[in-house]
Amino acid sequence: MSETHDFDAHDPQSPAELCCGEAAVYLLGLLDEPHSRVFLEHARSCALCSDDLAALAPAVDSLPTTVPQVSAPAHAKRRVMAVVRSEAAQRAPRSSPQAGVARRRLVLRRPALALAGAGLLAAGVAIGGLSAPFGGGSTPGGGPAARVQSAEVTLPGASAALHQSAGHTWLTVSNMPEPSSGHVYEVWVKRPGYALPQPTNSLFAPTSSGAATVVVPDSGGADEVLVTQEPAGGTQVPTGPAVIVARLS
Amino acid sequence: MTLVQAGDADAFEVVYDRHCDAAFSLAYRMCGRRATAEDVLQETFLALWRTGARYDRTRGSVRNWILRIVHNRAVDALRRGGIRDRHRLHEEGAVERVAGPEDTETQVLGWERAEEVRGALGGLPKEQSRVLELAYFGGFTHTEIASMLEMPIGTVKGRMRLGLAKLRLTLVAEEGLPR
Predict the structure, then answer these.
(1) Residue among B36, B76, B159, B161 with most chain A CBs within 10 A, to mutate
(2) Residues of chain A with C-beta less than 8 angstroms from the C-beta of B7
(3) pTM of the entire structure?
(4) Host H or E run for residue B116
(5) Half-sphere exposure of A30 (CA within 13 A, CB side)
(6) B65-90 pLDDT tens trace
(7) Do residues B25 and B102 touch, judged by C-beta distance below 8 A?
(8) B98–A68 C-beta distance less than 8 A
């Protein structure tokens, strides 16, 4: 929210009536972060505003109850829980019996917002999970210009590009269909001399608009990055054909 | 919530199941599009999972906290869409929302309370319910509302405050909320 407003809590001449409505504006979510902080600071020493805050908050909290209730779609839960379980496994100690495939991290589709919660924000590119894969909070977007190559995609209408910068590799996809129920997309790397690609810990599902940004870990020595659709949790060997193939330079 | 804050995925799933419909309903009511509402729902619950430690039980219920996050995210989504889209959504979207096939999925939760609040909102003077509607569900700022309705910002703020105060009084009378 970038709205500015005409409230100046530091104006020594502000009469009490100038406060009128400020609590309502704040409670309705119309103030941006800086103005919210200024208002809350002001409300600590303003009886009118602090009384308004206490009195009006229940009214604002009641507004969502007026909305017709609609069931959340089941696939939304599958997406959210896939991420949550993946990250929970990631947090678990390495000696946990869930280690291995279950520990795989699912990389997020709404990256900037996902990272905002973890205090990391990258311009247009972000990586899910609680650890910072690029170390020190740096991100692909913040480093030198990335080398970008288009990838072969077998899914109609979908596209993908492989990005490489400062030793890091990530994949961006557009117009990807959702994986089938109970499935995720899994990222693999293929190295010369190996018959089969090797699994990475990157699993993902795209946003409703079909977008995703996915880190490709452990890509050193690899000459190809592949994506397949696999059962939730991922597998150790591909069970289906690659839907994305990108060649590493 | 204590278990969620400790990173317990099973506990998180319980919280999700308990509040996802209310969260989705609010997001859908505000955004008017299922896909956008789904994104808002997902962003909200992943934010909750990752920042659950910020929940402070002394400042209200888990549901209200979640719905505040939904509201903020939905407002952000609306603003990304631009004011013209929002205006169109607000003016036209209600028809789609009421008549859409999703009505078949409707689950009535807290029906009596919802009716009371709806009644209280409907009982407000139109100029007050209008600014509340535009602000809370439409995601319009007080400045935008003042411009749309061609009235001073102070008047808009005053009507918001009066509307909420009357709503509160009605709820106090009907539900025995503390004064």
Answers:
(1) B161
(2) 88, 91
(3) 0.55
(4) helix B111-122
(5) 32
(6) 899 899 988 888 887 765 445 555 55
(7) no
(8) yes
What's the DSSP call for residue A95?
T
| Surface-to-core class of residue B99, CB atoms within 10 Å of its CB (0-12 exposed, 13-18 middle, 19+ buried) | exposed
Under an 8 A CB cutoff, do B16 and A5 touch? no
Q: How far apart are CA A233 and CA A103, in angstroms?
A: 8
Q: Calculate mean pLDDT across residues B103-121.
A: 57
pLDDT tens digits, A15-67: 444 577 789 999 998 888 888 888 888 888 888 888 888 889 989 988 888 88
* ipTM of predicted assembly, 2 dp: 0.76
Using the Cβ of A67 and the Cβ atoms of chain B, whether some distance falls under 8 Å is answered with yes
Question: Chain A residue with minimal CA distance to B8?
Answer: A88
B11's CB contacts (< 8 A; 6+ apart) are: B1, B3, B4
Q: How far is CA A92 from the centre of its chain?
A: 20
Q: What backbone phi and psi angles, to 5 degrees, belong to A245?
A: -130, 120
Cβ atoms of A151 and A177 closer than 8 Å: no
A205 shares contact with chain B (CB less than 8 Å):
no
